[in-house]
Specification:
Length: 449
């Protein structure tokens, strides 16, 4: 971390790396002609900068596009769209030779150091490999450089003669760093560099990266699903959700005053030493939607604990979330009333067939499935909901869908928020910010599912 230096650069310098509208879509193809029938929008238009000497983190749940962002920004995979300026030049226009030079200046470190080592090659040879490729053939000079690099990463010169299988995971990641440093890079991109390591070792490796960054004046882009990792090492952080950056700012500001409900939810899920401190958000439920068919409006609206309530009704926020869950299940066609009837049937012997189960009983069961209390505190909302559930249990899903969509519409499902500056310093993309709504008071509730 290098707050002072970063701020200085931000005032006076140019970014070392500038990513603009970066997209990576994977085509989904079908048939022998590989006709494109859809796209996985793994990275869907992200912008960020990394300044010289700065550490920037990308954080988000698994599958949100972090690794794809890294590999497409250094063109391990060709980006679908966007530009990547490095030291003022657009690398997306580089030819092979220029890319080679660029890849020396930007070194990648991966989660699994194991896979990046040849088991038959000694540590010294592994570190020297890039140097040899570059034409450094003087053996004595090479040994000197290897010894120096090993010591800089906290190992000893004699470790050069050892083999990968003799090293622990943490030691291997140190060797990975030594090898990256042998190229004298300007920047290191590290994708989950400590995720495979024990927690105590994680912290050591991060401290080492911090130390190396200062000594070598490196820029670091670090990718992690783990907020604790980000907090330890990053000057700034970008929070990603489903291929987009939803919040971007100084790490201390983002942690102290998260502006996006997704960031709040991520922060709430960090275990803390104090059991009474449960953060200010609720834990996330539900799966990350598929990036091949991202939700309309705000991509987070299908899981957002703070999804904006429909006008004209008064819900408790957590109950409103569950009503939205019901709407989504209905939209995806997966409320199985027959299965619910079967369940009732197995619990009682007073009905001969599912057809004889009273709809009132089924209605109650549907509400229970979604944890929706009865009645809702707002009588008007209650009557809308009951009417919709009546339609559902009588098989008129389409009518229920339309009725709920009309009555319980939220801007979150139709409007796409954009990143905006916030009062606490960072940028975030949430309609609550655009509409000047305060963060929602979300009650801590324990979900039964
Ligand atoms: P993260 O690193 O955040 O866990 P990834 O960047 O690996 O996420 O993946 C983002 C999304 O892109 C995921 O839904 C993943 O399944 C999809 N994806 C990644 N690589 C490919 C590929 N080669 N073809 C199709 N989809 C891919
Ligand atoms: Mg990844």
């Amino acid at each position: 971390m290098s707050d002072r230096r970063t701020d200085q650069h931000r005032r006076t310098g140019e970014p070392l790396l500038s990513v603009r509208n970066l997209k990576k879509h994977y085509p989904i193809t079908e048939g022998i002609l590989s006709k494109e029938v859809g796209r996985v929008r793994a990275v869907d238009g992200i912008d960020f900068d990394v300044y010289p000497g700065e550490t920037v983190g990308i954080v988000g749940e698994s599958g949100c596009g972090k690794s794809t962002a890294a590999s497409s920004l250094i063109r391990l995979e060709e980006p679908t769209d966007g530009s990547v300026l490095f030291d003022g030049e657009d690398i997306t226009e580089y030819d092979r030779e220029e890319m080679k030079a660029f890849r020396r200046r930007v070194q990648m470190i991966f989660q699994d150091p194991e896979s990046s080592f040849d088991p038959r090659m000694s540590i010294g040879d592994a570190i020297a490999e890039p140097l040899t490729v570059q034409g450094l053939t003087d053996t004595a000079r090479r040994r000197e450089i290897i010894a120096d690099l090993l010591e800089r990463v906290g190992l000893s010169a004699s470790d050069a003669d050892r083999y990968p299988h003799e090293l622990s995971g943490g030691q291997k990641q140190r060797v990975g760093l030594a090898r990256a440093l042998s190229m004298n890079p300007d920047m290191i991109i590290a994708d989950e560099p400590v995720s495979a390591l024990d927690v105590s070792i994680q912290s050591e490796i991060l401290a080492l990266m911090n130390d190396l960054q200062e000594k070598f004046g490196l820029s670091i882009l670090i990718i992690s699903h783990n907020l604790a990792v980000i907090r330890q090492i990053c000057d700034r952080v970008a929070v990603m959700y489903l291929g987009e950056i939803v919040e971007l700012g100084r790490t201390d500001e983002v942690f102290a005053n998260p502006q996006h409900p997704y960031t709040r939810a991520l922060l709430a899920s960090i275990p803390t030493a104090d059991p009474t401190d449960r953060g200010m958000g609720v834990e996330l439920t539900g799966d990350v939607p598929s990036p091949s068919n991202p939700p309309s409006g705000c991509r987070f609206h299908t899981r957002c604990p703070e999804v904006i309530q429909p006008e004209g009704y008064e819900f408790e926020q957590s109950v409103w979330r569950r009503v939205m869950d019901l709407r989504q299940k209905l939209d995806s066609g997966s409320i199985d009333v027959e299965a619910i009837r079967d369940m009732i049937l197995t619990e009682t012997d007073s009905y001969e067939t599912t057809a004889e189960i009273p709809t009132a009983k089924t209605r109650v069961r549907v509400r229970e499935e979604f944890d929706i209390p009865k009645p809702l505190s707002d009588p008007q909302a209650e009557s809308v909901l009951e009417e919709a559930i009546e339609e559902i249990v009588t098989g008129n899903d389409e009518a229920a869908r339309e009725y709920l969509a009309a009555e319980f519409a939220t801007p979150c499902e139709t409007q796409s928020p954009v990143l905006e500056d916030t009062e606490s310093g960072q940028t975030a993309s949430c309609l609550r910010i655009e509409n000047e709504l305060p963060p929602s008071e979300v009650e801590q509730t324990v979900r039964s599912d």
